[in-house]
Amino acid sequence: MAANHHTHETNKPHRYEGPKNHLITFAVSILLTALAFFAVMANLGKTFTIMFIVLLAIVQAAFQLYVWMHAKDRGHTYAKIGIFMGGIIALTAVAAVVYWMWW
Amino acid sequence: MSATHHAHGSLPAEPEKATLEGRNKILGFWLFLGGETVLFGTLFATFLGYNNVKGIGDGPDPAHLFDLKLVALATLILLVSSLTSVFAVQAMHRHDKSKMLLWFGVTVVLGLAFLGLEIYEFVHYVHEGHTFSTSAFSSAFYTLVGFHGAHVLFGSLWIALLMLQLVKKGLTVVTAPKCYVAALYWHFVDLVWVFIFTVVYLMSKVG
Question: In what way does this protein cross or attach to the membrane (chain A) (predicted)?
């Protein structure tokens, strides 16, 4: 970084790697989605299938957040705190309502 | 003043983060998305609470109602639209306004295609006797999925208006954060859909 110190910001080398990472993320997303659909059609047992497809959804969500929404980049600490706080409160709501209504 | 200055040849590499206002806008938007997560979380909670035999009442049950082929197509459309909005932001980093307009345009078209499928789906369900007030399950279903559809509609209109602003005002340090934030919103809407197809559609077909 320091070696490339120019006076004009336009001369700064590009910090993004181009579309490669995003295309890989896209391919993985399609793969995870297809896997979830196949898991449901393959009749692998109720509890296992539900746990498996929810896990796939969480992995896919993490890919979206970290690669496509750039949460992995520098300077996203507060952004991540904001979205994870929301996620924790949302999960608490889901757990509370499901527990309250099912049992 | 500084906006017009940047428009003429000296736009920084990341125009969306060039000003304090731009950076604050992006941070504020992430906090808003945290709030949106809570909102969708409670709707998911309601759906999960009612998505059992007790909640279906006299209406058709989800396993017979949902068509996974239609859902797979809708999912594919939304995933591709997320990728095209990534391409729009990358074009922004190359300061390529016409490519930005192209990729945002494709994103809006895909968003509207998704909405078309959803409208078709809802009309079909109503035909099957699955209306908003049929059962607790149907109310929770239409609220959650319809609320996501409303987000897709809002995002499509938002991006379309930003495209007009890009044409009119060009790519500047003022318009760049708006485009970046709209792309974040679009990814978030796609992320919510991942949980909708998993929790609403796929889980209903299990067991």
Answer: Multi-pass membrane protein
Q: How far apart are CA A31 and CA A36, in angstroms?
A: 9
Question: B33-91 pLDDT, tens per residue?
Answer: 999 999 999 999 999 888 765 667 778 888 888 989 999 999 999 999 999 999 999 99
Per the structure block, which two tokens stand in for A77? Answer: 């600490």
pLDDT of residue A76: 85
A45 phi/psi in degrees, rounded to 5: 100, 140
Q: Using the 8-state DSSP alphabet, how is residue A74 labeled?
A: T
Beta strands in chain A (DSSP E): none
Task: Give the list of residues 6+ apart from residue A78 with CB closer than 8 angstroms, or none.
Answer: B27, B30, B31
Q: B33 touching A, CB under 8 A?
A: yes
Interface check B193 vs A, CB under 8 A: no
B198: DSSP letter: I
pLDDT digits (tens, 9 = 90+) for B3-20: 444 445 578 888 988 899
**Nearest Cα residue to B145 out of B110, B196, B90:** B196
Q: How far apart are CA B65 and CA B80, in angstroms?
A: 26
Interface test with A, best of B25, B89, B194 (most A CBs within 10 A): B194
> Which portions of chain A are predicted below pLDDT 50?
1-14
A57 contacts in B (CB within 8 Å)? 194-195, 198-199
Q: Say what the pTM is.
A: 0.88
